[in-house]
């Protein structure tokens, strides 16, 4: 069951449900045995936890879970090392962050009202 390590943490820790060996240079969805039912207007994000990232070459990919997704949440991992990496059952590998969603609709425009310096990279100075 996902849970917060501290009451004010934004993310709930996601635990590995079965020990998995992730071979070098491969991508694997690690099992969690967790599914959620989000209310309308919310999404969930699977995010990496910093501990494993600092200690190994295992990378956790950011994932978005829409309100309509009700299957098991997997933790997408990339082993960028040349050695197998084992994640153990019960290990906290990722975190789940629940966030509100805006359902605004994009609008196509022919041109912007003011074409000059409309927020390009570096437009506010150094």
UniProtKB/TrEMBL annotation:
CDD domains: trimeric_dUTPase
A Gene Ontology molecular function term of the record: magnesium ion binding
Enzyme Commission no: 3.6.1.23
Top-level taxon in the UniProt lineage: Bacteria
Gene Ontology process terms (BP): dUMP biosynthetic process; dUTP catabolic process
A Pfam family this chain is assigned to: dUTPase
Keyword vocabulary terms for this entry: Hydrolase, Nucleotide metabolism
Domain dUTPase-like residues, every copy: 1-122
Entry keyword annotation includes Acyltransferase: no
Keyword Transport: no
Reaction catalysis annotation: dUTP + H2O = dUMP + diphosphate + H(+)
Family recorded in the similarity comment: Belongs to the dUTPase family.
Family annotation (NCBIfam families): dut, PRK00601.1
PANTHER family the UniProt entry points to: DEOXYURIDINE 5'-TRIPHOSPHATE NUCLEOTIDOHYDROLASE
Name of the protein in question: dUTP diphosphatase
């Amino acid at each position: 069951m996902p849970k917060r390590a501290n009451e004010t943490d934004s993310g709930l820790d996601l635990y590995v449900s079965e020990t998995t060996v992730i071979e070098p240079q491969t991508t694997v969805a690690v099992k969690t045995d967790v599914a959620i039912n989000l209310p309308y207007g919310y999404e969930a994000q699977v995010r990496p936890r910093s501990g494993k990232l600092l200690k190994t070459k295992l990378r956790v990919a950011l994932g978005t879970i829409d309100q309509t997704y009700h299957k098991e949440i997997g933790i997408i991992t990339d082993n960028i090392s040349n050695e197998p990496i084992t994640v153990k059952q019960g290990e906290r590998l990722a975190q789940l962050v629940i966030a509100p969603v805006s359902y605004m609709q994009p609008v196509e425009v022919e041109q912007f009202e003011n074409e000059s310096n409309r927020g390009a990279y570096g437009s506010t100075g150094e």
